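The passage that follows is intended for readers who have already worked through the single-chain material. We present the inputs for a multi-component assembly, then the predicted structure in tokenized form, and finally a short commentary. You are encouraged to pause after the input and sketch how you expect the pieces to fit together before reading on.
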Amino acid sequence: MARTQSADYAVRRDAITREAARLYARHGFLGASVAQVAAACETSKSLIYHYYPSKEDILFAVMDTHVQRLVRAARRAAAEPGDARARLGAAARALVVRYEGAGDYQRVLMNELRRLPDEKRTEIVGHQRELLDIVDALILALKPGLEADKPRRRTLTMLFFGMINWMHTWFDPDGAIDATDVADMAAAMLVAGVEQAAG
Amino acid sequence: MARTQSADYAVRRDAITREAARLYARHGFLGASVAQVAAACETSKSLIYHYYPSKEDILFAVMDTHVQRLVRAARRAAAEPGDARARLGAAARALVVRYEGAGDYQRVLMNELRRLPDEKRTEIVGHQRELLDIVDALILALKPGLEADKPRRRTLTMLFFGMINWMHTWFDPDGAIDATDVADMAAAMLVAGVEQAAG
DNA sequence: CCTACCGATCGGTAGG
DNA sequence: CCTACCGATCGGTAGG
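Having made your guess, compare it with the prediction:
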């Protein structure tokens, strides 16, 4: 190889991304300064700009890594053996587990999309659409009769993501009900909505 | 009376609140400056500070007027004649109609709560809890057997608000499905969740 | 001529 | 109700 990067280049970059996710989640993208991100990483602002060309590029990294993991997790769950109902439950649980394990990233994804420049926002939105399409396909597998009713399928999908995407605003991991139970409840409610729409 | 206010004091103040809601909704609280609010009202920053002591007080006014209207609308719908199922549907429709008619206010309420100082945030959260309690009471009316299971009732309530509170991120008023249909779907899905939890 | 980094400071704009 | 400002802090970049 011609030139080498620091041996721990990727490690440092990930650390920056993680601290930025924490601060953007807590204070908002505009409310968290690059100086705060640097301080959290116990380094200088200049070092941050060595790893990322701009504050918005850090935001993109936070969202992109998270949404890609969500897509992979949902795809894997939706491809498990079992009928459509079981695969929907598996996908719901997989997503909720990821939300819980990456709460800061999820908050940033939900709240700061408009802070991205058009081109980058489009890329993230594209991945989010892949996620919607996975659920849409499961709804269709559940009720092939809804083939012609795309608007209703999309509405059901959005109501489903409404239920789970904002769990972070109220869910208590130390409470009486755990995250996978909530995922199962949301999946069951979606199934009921699908039955009703089809019947 | 000792001193008079301008005859159109309330009208001007409401106009400021409305323009602020629009700008806070579009750019976020931190992303919208007081100068922008003043420009939108075709007046000066100083005039804004004549009507409101701080930028955060405008934010509080936006949230407070909206959440109080939501509580009134939901209470009225929940008190209509009919069984619990019908009253739940009426409450869902009343909320969704208000969300649609006050989209900017709803967006601000959803996204900017943490920008309020503690005391004011507590006041808004108190009103939101009234809203939760209205739905909780309807769930209980639907299934008295859930009396002892407050955690599950609260989870169902939060899943319900998850469905309708973030409609503004995806709902298309010119689309094939109208807002009250979405409200009915959400209400039906909540009922299914309640039945399942009780059975 | 590269990379990895530092302390200091740039031009503008924020709320008040 | 305006212009003229303030102390502070923003995202980003300079030289070395």
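Commentary: DSSP finds nine helices and no strands in chain B. Residues 30, 33-35, 45-46, 49, 54-55 of chain B lie near DNA strand C (CB under 10 Å from a C1'). How closely did your sketch match?
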